[in-house]
Each structure stands twice: as structure tokens, then as C-alpha cells.
Design goal:
Chains A, B: It is found in: Membrane. Two copies of one chain form a homodimer. By secondary structure, chain A is mainly alpha-helical. The first copy, chain A, has 24 helices and four strands.
């Protein structure tokens, strides 16, 4: 890639960014746009324009621990790159610039950027020692920053868990088996509260959704009708609306008893082989969740209960070995998909070295192709992860995120690097087939220029769009003008949704990997990485505080995965600039990963008793309310559920503490 | 090896076995020998000559679950071989005998045994399909028998744990940290009973051992003195004995207050960073052991408490990461030792094919060298396992047994097989270096003859010596005549010790591996394997019921390891007779291992709550007695410990159940 095309794309990205920033400043101040730029504060009933210099505590209060942990991740990457750049840029750039390896080979034209990279160092030059030591520096900086971050996140998680009020998931566990009452009463005579058997709600849910649809239609028709009464000349429409109102009322009257009947049938006859068990204290639930219950493990499994809103009801009754087989099949599919996707990506990256493509195309096409490709994947991966039989939405998101990470690393990063190298030197390889390895080394700095442009596109255009919220604004305006009639519909039109870590984190991990891997070979990439994570931190702190509303809270459960993948990126990097003196580094990285895992991981996988016990001092929780949170909406429409006695088939009564079941 | 030398060794082993059997029948009936042939029954106060047709329950009652599980292991191996042999012998032997591949190559002389093996089948003969199908048959037989055995052992373990009375280890856990009381009282306010801080007892133990030495000397001197008073003419000796009695009495008087003082100092000032915590019920201890306690995992670890008698007191205070580092170092040493031992073993096995060695030497030397070599290892491996920092003796034994297994498989089995193959065909390899693989295949049946002799030696001579107990009898007789003076000394002279699984199991595993691997190539080995495990089962059931006294009970904790190693042996075997059509077999074996592990393993690693809870119905255990069982003898001499108040520094008082610590 020519220096001119690099400057062309970089300049135009910067221009887009500036325009989007100006748009943001202008639009976010305009009245009526608060619901687009400050929806999170509007929902919480806070003044949109207050709350500026926010601490981490404020982020946790507004957006939860998960958002704070995402910011820690961005800050960690930023910290690693800043500390690395402080040494690498002033040392390595002069070392590379003053050598002149590239000038020696005359048949290829090299641009000025490549002269600042390791490609300009002569073979076996003592200057390469500088690059070797730089790799050590980057590795130790990464260890230091990652260790501090893990400690910090572990602390955040413990504090948030201990200080929050008791939630339904804190006193519950999931189990697999019918007739759980006797079993759990026997094993936990003093702490068992009540259990809820999972039922097959497909039919009830269908009726309930139909009912809800008519209810919404009714509200909408009534709003239109009352509006049309004040205006005149829409008589035909009014008549139609009256028909609609009558029709909806009839349907609702018809469906309500149908739903009630179906609810009874469901609770009595459609019980599944799974249950939610509620205990009378957090400590009891935590101890029970972590204790092996049965001699034959697969006959009685217990696991942590997720929040009611993220419970994947239909995955609960799946059996132990069924889940394993499903996981296995999904992994095979993911593996095949990774291999299969390699083909188009390699083809795209080959374009980056084709000389006959126009300069403009050369500047944008590969990057845009990459981004479109990566936008298609997440939904597919979420579907696959759900199919594994995972019982909680946040766990599904984590699983999909992991698969996305493998995709990105193998296909985008390794695919582009190796693909473009092979393509560029295809003819040379034809002549002497044993020369692949040295060629790969010498053409790496060239793909560095490609990734430089890619990173710039991501942060200038990506963050510009994110902060300015131009697309959500347009969608909201259009919906409001042409579609929305009721208050509820307007609210839904500006609802900002959640931050969406599932796709954010793997994308950011790709940037970490790219910047780390090229940091020593072409140190000029570091400032780009710093800009990416610096801007990212600023943008997403703003979005976390003012825009997105989290769908669930996992107390930073994602962190161990982020940590492991950072170390994976570091190891790829350590293998990337391969030399015999590098050998201790991957070994050290594995040791570091092991130590961190041993010290921190378990408290992310389970709840430590000391965290659970710190709840004790507070008031006794309202167990019945916590228990009811798990009743799905289709079984809980209206206030019929207050007298739960009719549903005793599926749900047990609170255990009387004086009775012994031994 | 010539057929004559094989018959020579086989015949002489059989002769030795017959002689030893006759000795056993004669000696075990003679009066005065009960303590050598029935020590276990003598200790339990039962009539030595009763109790013949014993069921598994009787084995458990007499020798514990571990002995029963060892017999299950022998029975499992026997079952696999019998079921395999029923099909393989009548089918494969005729198939091999009627072909004549070996007759074609005239430069080497083959014996009749080799004509019954796969080596006699022509290359690419359709007869090889028979051998392929035989491998499938053996694999499925192994799956079936192993699955039944694992279910059975799991059941044995659960039943024995649930039905035995509450033992100290059932209500205790080990932890690492000073000042455990506050912490555990806080986290387990209703179930915490008491804790005991681990102290550095080196000094106290030294004084106590010295004291015990003088006490024993005193008893011995008194016995000799009272004996000499009735006899006459030993006046000089009597005078000397009186001196000894006085000296010992003085020393004891001097040491007793010294020990008492040291005990106080130890309990107050030598507290270590570890403790035993006792709970008021088995369920509570089980749940606490399995629950994560601290946010930072390595700061507070909890683990299952072993029986008091197998607690390795000095390993308790070792830190989490110290243990990991020690384990790592030990693994490196074991790895190096495995590689290092390869050298002499390869050398020994090379002798087996040297034509210039005399026939007699050829028949015995290699087998004897192997057995001597294997007898040297266990102590070294036990030492290494203890150095890892493992806190319980039975765990150390399991760890050593695992290391021994790797040693035997890599060095003896693979070493002998590959070594002798390489040596035999050394000259041929010199000519055409690419021919190692086909040579290995064709010379395997020859090492099969070697292993045949080896297995025969093991069961004829090994079991003969085991059952006849000639060596323990001679030692006991000699000691009794020349050394023993007191009752205690005589008891110690015939004390049979424990069965010693640590070395038995890996040796048996070697036989399983050998017989499995050669079962299809040279089916004639199967009857030898059947004899080995059949005789073994008979001999050790006798020994378990009448001789050995177990040192500890691990409720068959060894079984998962045996199971995994059986599958490992199966996979080696499936790779051993390598062919493309074999590929599904190792995959199936891994799947089988995974399923068994998922279903059964956890209940061997931890105690399931349903097993712990079945104790509930019984009477409340005497917690103080269970707690006191953990006091080491050097801190508990005499009855001074009954008023434990003076030791309150190191040991907490029982928690009053009415006080709340929240």
C-alpha cells in the first residue's frame, strides 16, 4: 500500500470524525433530543445535563459493574500501550530509521512508513537486540497492568455483591429433577424455603403473547380514537377504530379464561425435569450450590441460578449429557465455520496487494469488507451458544463472545497476515518453495500498514458514530413521526438497549492483538492503539453514564475471559516476533496466567462464603417476593397469583422451620 | 528367545510355585504360626481357622473398602481377559496357525509359539480382518466390564460411607490461616464447633520419642530382670539390668517435666498458619469443605480433612503456591527420572536378544533384573510425593502410585518393546534407515514371548511367596528367638502391616497393559493373564481376610485412577495394533472415559451431601472425642489433656450454640 492511499484514508476518517463530533455537540444540546442522548438518566428520573466528572462508583451506580469492568478493560489496554509506547517509540524508531536494509533491495518500492519498522533493519544486525529487549519490556508491562486490573476487578465484584441488597438469584439455585421438595428438605432441613418446578410453557406463552398483542392494539386504538374526537373530518377512520376497539375487547375477553385454563394445565401436567430452589439465606444458597448433592453426579446437578430476567426457561430441562453433546456439536460447527470463513477473508486480503486496483478502492474496500463481515457473525454465534443448552442469557453472551474472539483472531488477524504475505510472494514461492518462512517475516511490516488504516477506521468512524448517535436519532425521529401513537410506543422507540459486550469485547481484543503484535515490528502503530483505547474509554464512559441501560448484571463475570485473552494475545505476540531468546517469555506468560487463575478465578465462578455472609447482618429478605420473581410472565398475568395455593402441584409451600424431615 | 528356554523358565517357576504351596499348607496348619498366617483375625480376637467362604461384605468388615476395591480391580481385569479369551483363543489361534508367513523368511529361526501369533499372517492377508475385529471385541468387553465395576465401586463407597459411624474426618476440614475462630464462627455461626491450630512439634516430638524409647527400654529390662530372678547363675547380668532400670527411671523422671514444658511452649508460641476445624455435623463439614470461602482463593483454602492417623502434620502449614511449585519441581524430577531410567532398562532388554548369552541366563536374568529394578523405585517415589506438600498419607500413596505407573509403562513396557525391537534389527536398520516402523511390527511377537515369561514369573513365584509368607515367617522366628523380650516386641515382630496398594496396583496395571497389548497379536498370552488375575484374586482375598491390617481407609478413592489407567492401557493397545480401521476405537475410549468421569468421579473427590445427610438420623456424635483424635501423640501424653483449658491459646472452646456472632 502506498503512503498516499494511507494518508487519503486517514484524512477522510479524521474528517468524518470531526463532522460527527460537531453533530454530537449541536444535536445533544437541542431540546427534545434528551431521550436519545441521555436515555439512561431520563429513565432514572435524573436531570439529563448534570453529573459530569464521574467516578467509578458513579458508573457502577448508573450502569452496573459490567459497564465499569468494560471501562477497566479499555483502561488496561490503554495503560499497556502507553507504558509500552513511552519506551518503544523514542528507542526503536531512531534505531530503525538510521539503518537502511530496505534501500538495498531495489526491485520493490517501499514507502516511508516501512522505513520506520523492523523491516529496515539489516539481517543479523546488533540493532535487533533493541527489538528483542523491547519485547521483554512490553511483556512485563502487560503482566504488571493485568495483575493490577484483575485485583481491582475482583475487589469491585466482591464489594458490589456484598453491598447490594439480596436479589432472587442470591438465594436460589437451579437443579434437575422432579419432586425436588422431599430431597432438598431432607438435605437442607434448616435452610430450604421453597421450590418451583419448571413447566413447558410453550402453549401458555403463545396465548399470553396473543393476549398482550390485543391489549397493545386496544391501547393504541383508544389513543387514536380519543385524538380523532377532538379533530374533525376523519369520520371513516373513527368508525374503523371503534370496530378495532370492540374487536380487541372481544378477543381479550375470549383469551383471558383460555390463558387461565392453560396456566392450570401447564402447572399441573406439563412439569419438566428441572426446578428453581429457593433457600432462606444467601449463605445457605451459596453453600448448597457449591456442594455435590448426589453420588451419581449426572442424576442430580445443582448450579447457580441466574437473575430471573436472564433465565433461559426452555434450556433448563435439558439433561447433563444432552448439554455436553450439544456443546460438542456446536464446537464442531464453530470449528468448521472458522475454517470455512478463512476462504473469503483470504480473498479480500489478497486485494490489498493487487497493484491493478485503483488507489481509492485500495484505501477503503478491504477495511469495509472486514467490518461488514464481522457485523454478520454475532447473531449466528448467539444462536449457536443458546443451542448449547446454557441456562442463562449472560452466560450465552459470554460463550458467543468467546467464539467471536476465536473467529476474529484466526480469520481476520492470522488470515490477513498470512494470506497477504502468501499472495504477495506467491511468485517468489513458486520459484523456491522452501522460502515461505523468511518471506513471511519480511512482508509482515507491509500488512502492518493495512492494520494501521483498519484501526484508524475503527476509532474515527466507529466512535464518531457511537458518540453522535446519528443513526438511533434518525430512527427515533422517523418512528415518532410515522409510527408511534401511544406513550409506550414512543418509549420503545428511544429505548437505548444495552451496551452489547458480546461484540464489543472481541473487536477490542482484535485491536489489542494487532497493536501488541506490531508494537515492536512497527512501533508507529502504538499511538493509533493509544488513540483507539483513549477515545474508546472517553466515549464509553459517557455512553455508560448517559445512554445504555444494562439488561442484566453479571458483576464482571466476563473479566477472567478478557484476562485470559489478553494473555493469549501476548503469547501470539511473543511467538510473532520469534527468536530463540524469546523462549522464556511464553513460559512466563503461561506461569502468569496460571497464578492469576489460581488466585482470582474461582471467586468469579462461584460466590465466596465470606461475600455471601456479609449480607447476614442486614434485614431478613422478603423470601416470597424473591421467589415470585422467577414466575414467568405468561404464568403470572394479573393478580391471580396472590393466592398461590391452587398451584401447589408445581410449587411447594414454604418449609415450616419447626418440622423435621430427617 | 528359544522355545526351550521358555519351557525351562516356565517349568521351574511352576516347580517353585508347587513347593511354596505345599509349604503354605503345611506351615499354616502348625500351631504357633497363627500370628503369621492369620494375624488380622488374631488382632480382632477371632478364631483363626474359621471364616471360609467370604462375601464382599466380609472383606469390607475385615479389611475395609480399599481391600474390597483392590479385589474388584483384580476381578475386573480377570473379567476382561476371560471374556476376551473366550472369543479370541478359538478364533485367532487357528487363523494364525494355518497361515505360513514365517516359513517364507528362511534366514531367521522361529519357534512354535511365534507361529500362533499375528507374525505368521501374510502381509495384506484377508485373515488380518479377524485380528481387527478381535480388537473391537476386546475394546467393547473392556468398556462393559469397566462400567459395571465403576458403578459397583461407587455404590460400595457410598454405602460404606453412609453406614459407618461418624469419624473424626467426617466432621472436620483443613484450612490455612491463623486465628481461624472468628472467621469460621462468622461464616458458620450455627455449625462451627471448635478449631485446632497446627503447631511446630519438632522439638516436642523429639523429647516425646526419647521418652518413649526409655519407657520401652524400662519394660524390657524389667521383663529380663523378673525372668532372671527365677533362673540362677546370671548374677552379673542381673546387676547390669538393675542399673538399666534405675537409669531409665531417672531419665523418664527427667524428661517428663521437660516434655510438659515444651508442650506448653509449642501450643503457645509455635502456632503455624494452618488449622483443623471441626463442625457439629457431617453435612455441615461437607458443605463447608466444598464451598469457596475467600474472594482471593489462595488466602483461605479449605480442604477435606484426612483421618487423624494419616495426617501429615508437617505438610499442613505449606502455602498454596508453595505446594504448586513443589509439585512442579517433583514432576520435572519424575520426568527426568523416567527418561534417565530408560537407559539401563534398554540395556537389560537388549540382553534378551543377544545370542551369545547362555540359555539359562537368558531365561532368568532379564526378568529378575526387571523385578529388582521395580522394587527399588517405590520408596523414592513416596519420598517425592511427600515432598509435594500433600497433607494426607493415603493421598501421598495414590500420588506415588501414579508416578510408578508412568515409570512402569514408559520404561518397562515401552522400553522393553521398543528397545528389544531396535536392538534386534539394528543391523537391518543400518542398511535401510527408513524401515524401523515395519520392523517394529514384525518383531513385536518376539518380545511377546519375553513378556509371557515375565508374567509367569510374577504369578508363580510372586504369588507363591505372597501366600506361603515364607520370608515373614523366617523373620518372625529369628526375631522371636534372638531379639524379642516383651509382649509388645513379639507383637511387633509378627505385625503384618498393610497390603501396600502403592506398588501392587501399578505392577498389576503393567500386566493388564502387556496382556491387552499382546492379546490380539499373540493370543496365547491371554491364559497367562487369566492365571495371573485369577490366582491373584484368590491369594489376595485370603490375605485381605486373614493377614493384612489396613493402615487407613480411603473408601476406594484409588478407583478413579485405576479406571483411567485401564482406559489408558486400552488406548495404548488400540494404538499398538495400528491400522486405519482402528481410528474410531481411541475416540470411543476417550468418550467412554469422559462419560464415566462425568458420572462417577466427583463423588470420589468429594462427599455428596446425600451420603453425608444419611448420617443425620443416628445419634449425635461425641464431638469432643472426634476433636481429640487430631491431637498428635507428642502433645497428648498421659491424661493431662483432659483439662484442656490450659491450652486455650491454640485450641478454641466449643462454640455455644445460643450465642450469635453475626
Amino acid at each position: 500500500m502506498e503512503i498516499s492511499s494511507f494518508l487519503t484514508s486517514f484524512g477522510s476518517y479524521l474528517a468524518i470524525f470531526v463532522v460527527l463530533m460537531l453533530l454530537f455537540i449541536w444535536l445533544s444540546g437541542r431540546p427534545g433530543n434528551e431521550v436519545v442522548y441521555y436515555p439512561s438518566r431520563v429513565v432514572k428520573g435524573l436531570d439529563p445535563h448534570e453529573g459530569g466528572g464521574a467516578s467509578e462508583d458513579e458508573v457502577i451506580a448508573m450502569a452496573g459493574v459490567d459497564a465499569a469492568v468494560y471501562l477497566v478493560f479499555l483502561g488496561t489496554a490503554l495503560g499497556i500501550l502507553v507504558l509500552s509506547g513511552l519506551v518503544l517509540l523514542p528507542v526503536l524508531l531512531p534505531v530503525a530509521r538510521t539503518d537502511n536494509n530496505l534501500a538495498l533491495s531495489k526491485n520493490i518500492t517501499f514507502n516511508d512508513l516501512d522505513k520506520l519498522s523492523m523491516g529496515n533493519i539489516k539481517e543479523k544486525s546488533p540493532r535487533l537486540w533493541g527489538f528483542l529487549l523491547a519485547t521483554y519490556w512490553v511483556s512485563f508491562v502487560t503482566f504488571y497492568v493485568l495483575w493490577r486490573a484483575y485485583s481491582h476487578v475482583s475487589n469491585l465484584r466482591a464489594t458490589a455483591k456484598a453491598s447490594s441488597e439480596v436479589k432472587p438469584q442470591d438465594v436460589a439455585l437451579l437443579t434437575r429433577k422432579e419432586q425436588v421438595d422431599d430431597y432438598f428438605r431432607n438435605l437442607h432441613p434448616d435452610t430450604f424455603y421453597r421450590s418451583m418446578v419448571i413447566t413447558d410453557n410453550t402453549q401458555a406463552n403463545k396465548i399470553w403473547e396473543e393476549l398482550e398483542g390485543y391489549r397493545k392494539k386496544l391501547v393504541r386504538a383508544e389513543v387514536v380514537f380519543s385524538g380523532s374526537k377532538t379533530a374533525t373530518g376523519f369520520l371513516g377512520l373513527v368508525g374503523k377504530k371503534v370496530d378495532t376497539i370492540n374487536f380487541c375487547n372481544e378477543k381479550i375477553k375470549e383469551l383471558e379464561p383460555k390463558l387461565e385454563a392453560e396456566q392450570k394445565v401447564t402447572l399441573r401436567e406439563k412439569q419438566q425435569n428441572a426446578a428453581v430452589v429457593v433457600f432462606n439465606s444467601m449463605s445457605a444458597a451459596v453453600a448448597a450450590t457449591q456442594t455435590l448433592h448426589a453420588q451419581l453426579v449426572d442424576t442430580w446437578t445443582v448450579s447457580e441460578a441466574p437473575e430471573p430476567r436472564q433465565l433461559l426457561w426452555y434450556n433448563l430441562p435439558k439433561r447433563f449429557f444432552e448439554r455436553k453433546v450439544r456443546s460438542l456439536i456446536v464446537y464442531v460447527i464453530v470449528f468448521l465455520a472458522v475454517v470455512f470463513y478463512m476462504v473469503p477473508i483470504t480473498f479480500i486480503s489478497a486485494f490489498t496487494t493487487l497493484a491493478n486496483l485503483k488507489n481509492v478502492l485500495e484505501a477503503y474496500l478491504p477495511q469495509i469488507a472486514l467490518i461488514v463481515f464481522m457485523a454478520l457473525l454475532p447473531k449466528f454465534l448467539l444462536f449457536l451458544s443458546r443451542a448449547e443448552g446454557i441456562a442463562s442469557e449472560s452466560h450465552v453472551v459470554r460463550a458467543a463472545s468467546g467464539k467471536f474472539f476465536y473467529f476474529i483472531i484466526f480469520n481476520v488477524f492470522l488470515g490477513v497476515t498470512i494470506g497477504s504475505t502468501l499472495f504477495a510472494s506467491f511468485k517468489e514461492i513458486e520459484k523456491k518453495p522452501n522460502s515461505i518462512v523468511p518471506l513471511l517475516g519480511s512482508s509482515l511490516p507491509k500488512s502492518a500498514t493495512f492494520f494501521l488504516t483498519f484501526v484508524a477506521l475503527k476509532f474515527f468512524v466507529g466512535y464518531g458514530l457511537e458518540l453522535s448517535r446519528v443513526i438511533p436519532l434518525i430512527i427515533y425521529r422517523l418512528k415518532r413521526r410515522f409510527l408511534c401513537k401511544t406513550e409506550g410506543e414512543i418509549k420503545q422507540a428511544w429505548a437505548p438497549g444495552a451496551l452489547g459486550y458480546a461484540t464489543k469485547v472481541p473487536n477490542d481484543m482484535l485491536i489489542v492483538t494487532i497493536v501488541l503484535c506490531y508494537s515492536v515490528i512497527a512501533p508507529l502503530i502504538i499511538p493509533f492503539g493509544v488513540l483507539y483505547f483513549g477515545l474508546g474509554w472517553l466515549v464509553f464512559r459517557n455512553q455508560a453514564l448517559k445512554v445504555y441501560i444494562p439488561e442484566y448484571e453479571s458483576y464482571g463475570r466476563m473479566w477472567p475471559h478478557i484476562h485470559t485473552r489478553m494473555i493469549a494475545a501476548l503469547i501470539i505476540y511473543q511467538k510473532f516476533v520469534y527468536a530463540p531468546f524469546m523462549l522464556p517469555l511464553p513460559v512466563l506468560s503461561f506461569a502468569f496466567a496460571f497464578i492469576c487463575n489460581a488466585r482470582f478465578y474461582k471467586a468469579f465462578d462461584r460466590v465466596p462464603l465470606e461475600v455471601a455472609a456479609s449480607h447476614k447482618a442486614k434485614q431478613t429478605p422478603n423470601l416470597e417476593a424473591l421467589f415470585s420473581a422467577y414466575i414467568p410472565p405468561c404464568l403470572n398475568s394479573g393478580d391471580k397469583f396472590d393466592d398461590a395455593d391452587q398451584f401447589e402441584d408445581a410449587r411447594s409451600q414454604p418449609a415450616s422451620r419447626t418440622t423435621s424431615f430427617a
